[in-house]
Task: inverse folding
């Protein structure tokens, strides 16, 4: 089967989201052919290069979202009228008030249809004319935005938009719609794959929407985070008009991707709820948990020389009694301040307890937060502090599995979390966990760990003390956690789930015409089996 894998800010680049998951998926499905279509986010990402690609990746096409040269395409009078009509309809869709209609992402069916028609109208125009960069940057585009914002019935935030706000919105739309000008949608490109798989929602799914529109290629959309929510949080500091218009655009685009996808694969129930609120049809949703490698944590999760899943002793193999371990990216959303205050309460009841904070602070905000936490630890624990800060990622840093192995209990203190990777790693390591109730934590932990409210140092301390003082319970929970992780969160289960989904989608989508060249050398699963007729060259079957 030929898979068009669509990414934005990730694979095959060495830096970016979903890089490891995509690489494991592609390597695990060696029986399929993958063609990568990647949108990059910045110059640094491109400079970092690509990861080593396996042989089943037969083609890579890339395009930047962070820059675009004027393509030299200047529209004639008729094309300008079509552009003004479609762009105006798209802009009008951003100013339409929500109607709360089920299945339309909170918007009326008529307005959803108008946005959809405008988006594909722009795509058709860009395909016919050879591009759209100049038109999207034109004064005519800004004037179209201004007209709909000043029109009767427009939301208050839109009516109050200043010229600078409209320029910001126009620049963002031009960047978001750059995929419309790419040459990825011809018969030899995305038009010839058996299905498109967007490795994230949002802009990554846009080329898949266009391949479906032009060629009927089915689309699978995977979301392990919530791009729409990330956009809402990322634009919190923007002017009200900019925030409202861009939120409407990304909400409309998400709703269209969810409507058009043959299958949606959220990574957890938290993401699934967001998709359904944006109009996703429940019958198309299949929850597929992220796949992670368990092998690197086997030493901590199993007794040396013992069988897989065998309990590793009262505190776990190699654990330091009384030691709490926190692992992750250091930033304010991880709420290490609450963890430190909770640990102060733990020390009052377990005097020998220690805390290891292992992580990295790759940006200035994280570095400042780490400094604040170190100063707070110095004030809470003067003298010989029982808190150790371990920098991960450097040449002298300990291995991740070794850090987890130290902990009698692994702690997560976040106030915002999607899929809690550190909790799953702790579960692979056979460790009992204490986590805050955020994101998909409850779904991941099940009954194998303790869950407390976020921003509650007293509850966090009580749970930690309970496990530190009960080795048998800690051992029992750790064994159950490893068994659960091995069943649900391995690379193998993730790859097998997507293999089944690919076959399901290929098996129920309408058959498409086979080229003569393809008919001479059939590929397994490249097209439905009933299209292959011995001695007949190529045929077309309709259903």
Result:
């Amino acid at each position: 089967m030929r898979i068009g894998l669509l990414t934005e800010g990730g694979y095959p680049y060495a830096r970016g989201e979903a890089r490891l998951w995509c690489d494991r998926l592609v390597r695990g499905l060696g029986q399929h052919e993958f063609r990568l279509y990647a949108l990059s986010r910045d110059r640094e990402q491109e400079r970092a290069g690509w990861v080593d690609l396996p042989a089943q990746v037969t083609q890579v096409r890339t395009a930047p979202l962070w820059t675009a040269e004027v393509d030299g395409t200047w529209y004639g009078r008729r094309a300008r009228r079509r552009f003004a009509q479609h762009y105006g309809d798209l802009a009008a869709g951003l100013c339409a008030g929500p109607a709360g209609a089920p299945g339309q992402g909170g918007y009326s069916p008529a307005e959803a249809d108008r946005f959809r028609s405008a988006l594909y109208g722009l795509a058709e125009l860009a395909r016919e004319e050879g591009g759209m960069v100049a038109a999207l940057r034109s004064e005519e585009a800004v004037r179209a935005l201004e007209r709909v914002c000043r029109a009767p019935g427009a939301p208050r935030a839109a009516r109050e938009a200043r010229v600078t706000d409209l320029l910001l919105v126009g620049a963002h739309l031009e960047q978001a719609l750059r995929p419309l000008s790419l040459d990825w949608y011809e018969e030899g490109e995305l038009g010839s794959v058996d299905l498109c798989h967007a490795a994230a929602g949002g802009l990554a799914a846009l080329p898949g929407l266009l391949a479906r529109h032009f060629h009927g290629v089915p689309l699978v959309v995977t979301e392990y985070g919530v791009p729409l929510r990330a956009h809402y949080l990322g634009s919190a500091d923007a002017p009200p008009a900019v925030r409202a218009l861009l939120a409407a655009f990304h909400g409309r685009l998400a709703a269209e991707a969810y409507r058009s996808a043959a299958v949606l694969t959220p990574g957890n129930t938290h993401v699934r709820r967001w998709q359904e609120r944006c109009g996703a049809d429940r019958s198309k949703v299949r929850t597929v948990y992220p796949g992670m490698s368990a092998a690197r944590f086997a030493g901590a999760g199993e007794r040396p020389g013992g069988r897989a899943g065998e309990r590793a002793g009262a505190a776990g193999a190699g654990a330091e009694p009384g030691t709490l371990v926190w692992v992750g990216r250091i930033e304010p959303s991880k709420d290490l301040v609450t963890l430190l205050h909770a640990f102060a309460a733990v020390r009052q009841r377990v005097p020998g307890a220690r805390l290891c904070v292992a992580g990295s602070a790759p940006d200035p905000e994280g570095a400042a937060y780490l400094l604040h936490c170190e100063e707070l630890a110095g004030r809470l624990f003067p003298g010989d502090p029982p808190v150790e800060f371990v920098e991960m990622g450097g040449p002298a840093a300990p291995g991740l599995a070794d850090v987890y192995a130290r902990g009698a209990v692994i702690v997560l203190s976040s106030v915002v979390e999607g899929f809690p990777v550190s909790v799953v790693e702790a579960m692979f390591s056979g460790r009992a966990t204490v986590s805050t109730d955020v994101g998909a934590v409850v779904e991941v932990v099940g009954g194998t760990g303790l869950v407390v409210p976020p921003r509650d140092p007293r509850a966090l301390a009580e749970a930690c003390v309970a496990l530190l003082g009960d080795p048998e319970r800690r051992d029992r929970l750790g064994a159950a956690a490893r068994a659960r992780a091995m069943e649900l969160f391995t690379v193998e289960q993730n790859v097998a789930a997507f293999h089944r989904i690919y076959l399901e989608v290929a098996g129920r989508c309408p058959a498409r015409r086979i080229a003569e060249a393809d008919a001479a050398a059939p590929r397994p699963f490249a097209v439905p089996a009933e299209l292959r007729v011995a001695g007949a060259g190529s045929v077309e079957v309709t259903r």
User: Anything to note?
Assistant: Residues 99-104, 303-315, 513-517, 529-543 have pLDDT under 50 and may be disordered. Residues 109-129 form the longest helix (21 residues). Residues 162 and 241 are 8 Å apart (CA to CA). The chain is about 45% helix and 10% strand.
